[in-house]
Amino acid sequence: MRKKLKEQIVQEFPHRCPYCEKTITYEQFNLKAGENEIKCPSCKNKYVKVVAPSFTEGDHGSRSE
Ligand SMILES: [Zn+2]
After folding, report:
1. 48 C-alpha vs ligand 1 centroid, how far in Å?
2. Stretch 6-18: mean pLDDT
3. Residue 40 in domain
């Protein structure tokens, strides 16, 4: 079951703070496309997370018909 294993790895790939390596849930930061300043809730360090435009489909998902 190689395929299944691969999917699990992708899903469980944690987002982590680059300073303390604590797993961070980005949902609480209301990420937008581009650069987002993230303040780690654990170690209080700030870092920039870059989000690809496709990640936030809700903002500009309306297509011209
Ligand atoms: Zn941290």
Report:
1. 12
2. 67
3. yes
